[in-house]
């Protein structure tokens, strides 16, 4: 995973209320992500889910259709007709084409300018480089004055708030 942004500092954007880091340690993204998205939809959020490539967007699309036969997560990609109508929009861009108020970052990018009220930054703790980049993002967001929370998985894959 590459650090997705340049070294331009992050500045505080007043509409953003919180950033939550989700440190994957026991479950892979494919297992943890659908449950987080379910909680977001139940919580009334409109979601923009960002991935690093069109290929990964398609993988996530397939995942959300097949992860659990008894569940349904309404979603589509920015390549679909009427992306603005999607409760969960899969994209390579952080543009809130669906009027999303929750941005889910899966590719390690730094978010510098946004109108989102909340960001979930999910990173793979088994990838040393991803962990280093997550720490860098945490530090920059913290220095910019954002409210930041950190969640890590326990041995059963359950999220536990650490700070």
Describe the structure.
This protein is of the alpha/beta class and about 160 residues long. It has a single domain (about 20-160), classed as DNA polymerase III subunit chi (Rossmann fold). It has three helices and eight strands. The chain has helices at about 30-40, 55-65, 130-145, and strands at about 20-25, 45-50, 75, 90, 100-105, 120-125, 145-155, 160. An eight-stranded mixed sheet has the order 3-4-2-5-6-1-7-8, sandwiched between helices. A hairpin with a 5-residue loop joins strand 7 (about 145-155) and strand 8. The protein is globular and about 40 Å long. The chain starts with 17 loop residues before the first strand and ends with a strand. The relative contact order is 0.27. The model has no long low-confidence stretch (mean pLDDT about 90).
Instruction: Report on the biggest sheet.
Output: 8 strands, mixed
Q: Catalogue the unreliable spans.
A: none
Taken as a percent bin, the fraction of beta residues is 15-25%
CATH evolutionary superfamily: DNA polymerase III subunit chi
Class by alpha and beta content: alpha/beta
Helix content: 25-40%
The total domain count is 1
Counting H and I runs of at least 4 residues, what is the number of helices?
3
What sort of overall outline do the alpha carbons produce when their principal axes are compared?
globular
Which topology does CATH recognise?
Answer: Rossmann fold
